Amino acid sequence: MANRTLRTAAPPALRRAASQVASLAPGGLFSGPLSDAQLEAALEQLYVQNADGSHDLLVPHRGRISRVPIRATRQAVFDAHWPHFKLAPPVVESSAEEQVKGDERRRVEARKVREEGGQAAAAAKKVGVNKEFFRQLRAIMRILIPNARGKEVFLLILHTGFLVLRTYLSVLVARLDGMIVRDLVTANGRGFLRGLGLWFALAVPSTYTNSMIRYLQSKLAIGFRTRLTRYAHDLYLNNKANFYRIINLDGRVESADQYITTDIARFCETLSALYSNIAKPSLDIIIFNVQLSKAIGGRGLFGLFCSYYLTGKVLRAAAPAFGKLAAIEAKLEGDFRGAHGRLITNAEEVAFYNGSAIEESILNRAFKRLVKHVGSIYRVRVAYSMTEDFVLKYAWSAAGYGLIAMPYLFPAAGAAAAAKTQSADVGVAERTEGYVGSRRLLLSVSDAGSRLMASYKDLAELAGFTSRIYVLLQVLHSLDRGQYQSLPRPADLAPGQPFYDLGDIRGTVRHGSGDVALTKVPIVAPAPGVERGGEELVKELTLRIQPGMHVLISGPNGVGKTAVARVLAELWPAFDGTLELPDAKDTIFLPQRAYLTTGSLKEQIIYPHAVPQCSKTDDELMEILQAVHLGYVVEREGGFQARKTWTDVLSGGERQRFAFARLLYHQPRFGILDETSSAVSTDVEGLMYQAAKERGITLITISHRPSLMRYHTHLLHLGGEQNTWQLEELGGDGSEALSFEDEIRELEANLKDVEQWQARVDEIKRELQPQALQAGA
Ligand SMILES: Nc1ncnc2c1ncn2[C@@H]1O[C@H](COP(=O)(O)OP(=O)(O)OP(=O)(O)O)[C@@H](O)[C@H]1O
């Protein structure tokens, strides 16, 4: 969609198309080709809201639009799963001495986790096919197969049916093989031709069965992936902003995007492939061995099993830690992808600095680490593959030859007597038939065995992916419940000194208040997994902002101004005191960087509303844009429905004005603005502030610009000694507009004083001259 403007449809046509899209039955499909208007309507209208709160996505696909029902995971489901994902409670030490030792151990562990790049990386070192792996897999299976009547169960049953059918067909093929060779040896042309006909007749169901097995395996993988991705999304993107917490308030998972996009996909593919890779050869081995036992007898079969057992032992001992290697590979893939993501996000800045060379070396370093690791996996695989090949292809076959030959070389007495009565030719033919059949079965067993052994390697790799997915879900579950990493208070911290541990948040938050109020709330920069805890930026802030009280927050860089906004937005916790907040819909936060979403021009104004929620007409939206001096953009960009990469086409100031337009569109009771107009000229800035106040929005502004004081009634100054703060009432009602004329007048008045200041500077310089100082002395 990059930089592509769709042809603007006439509004009535668009409205008609939109109503067609909305009236489409759930699960329904628009048959193509769609008109431009319909396509626009569907692109614009991301989803259709249902009466029960669920929504149906409108997904354009190959010139059609399908309506896909999406049901959010219910809280009851998360509650039921929580016991399977929660961390084991810390061991309670009985004596004070043990307590100290336990605390030290937790500190060392946290340090190690940090050094190793997150919990997932640390966990990767312990993965393998063990009890913990099966526990984690069971917990994830609850998400993949939520009930016995689900689609996945049906797919599994069908899949199993085809697996059995394929094994049965293989047995038939083995028998037929023997018959064809027998007819050849006895020069039975008719029998040979009949055998060939049967051979082709069997080929049709065999090829169909093989294709169906692959198809069902892929269906199962995509079904699992859909369930797991939706589950992770529901936890990641809910109203608790867990996507923010996982990045900023928790050090356990790095690059969550890699987990959700790539690791989940690889986990599901490996899992569903593993089912066929284990079920099919296991079934083959059982059925083929039953068949073989008819030819080689009970003793032969016992010998065969002894050889399986021995080779299994040898291979297991020779197998490297595939799970651990796979988990580390996934982490390194994540790092590499993350480095690329960072470059894309900051492309313009890097280009301005001409920073390609250093960025390339950062990317290459991440890639090199990945390649080195993958190279080492290949190396360890060479030795393992050699052992596997030798054991499964050659040792098994040799043992098999010996076992098959037994009945022929050492026939039982009765069988030998019977053989004598038959003609020599018939005896040779039957022996050949028996031998070829058994030989094919044996080859199949050997093949099944090697697939089973190979699937042990897949199982070990699955253990690696399982551990990563499990850690992701565990962290998301615990963040969703407000449970963070906790560390003990450092022993050397003075008793009166505060220690801010994310595991010990004591503040109270009350929603539904008419004001924004903080009572003795310390503003603390959280530090997940850091021994000394969070850093106090502002000491116990107490402040009540009532409607109509416009507060400007100022102070030096890094003092904690944005941190106050983060606490008010509940992104950072209130470690102590009481926070009173209005309902979420009554407050809008405009962050420092003006965020632009993907979608149409209209969606930039109404964000985070989606089109179906838009409460204003195009004319009303135009009025809002004019209030922030952006009216011209609609025509320039091709209408409200135009879709572009907005960060590329809007200037910095325009982006900030769009953010202000959002404030006017939502018209909340409180607007918390963080340097929202730093790139906007002062005259337009003044008009925007004026427009917001006229709409009854109480402003809480973070800014370094003193010119903004005139739009506020109070000044909160941060950055006093020992993190103190000061609230000052500003003169006036904050309603004075600043125009260019006002600013010029103000500057001219200041210029008048310049002569006086210059005279004073000269005076000071004179007084500081050495002669004057000596005279003074
Ligand atoms: N995600 C974070 N995790 C931990 N500490 C942070 C985080 N973001 C910022 N900090 C720290 O919190 C302190 C306050 O940051 P904040 O962004 O509130 O500063 P500010 O007063 O708004 O500065 P500026 O005027 O430069 O925007 C800084 O020292 C910074 O190092």
From TrEMBL:
Organism domain of life: Eukaryota
Gene3D superfamilies: P-loop containing nucleotide triphosphate hydrolases
Keywords from the named record: ATP-binding, Coiled coil, Membrane, Nucleotide-binding, Transmembrane, Transmembrane helix, Transport
Keyword Transport listed: yes
Keyword Transmembrane helix: yes
Any one cellular-component term (Gene Ontology): peroxisomal membrane
Protein name: Putative peroxisomal half ABC transporter
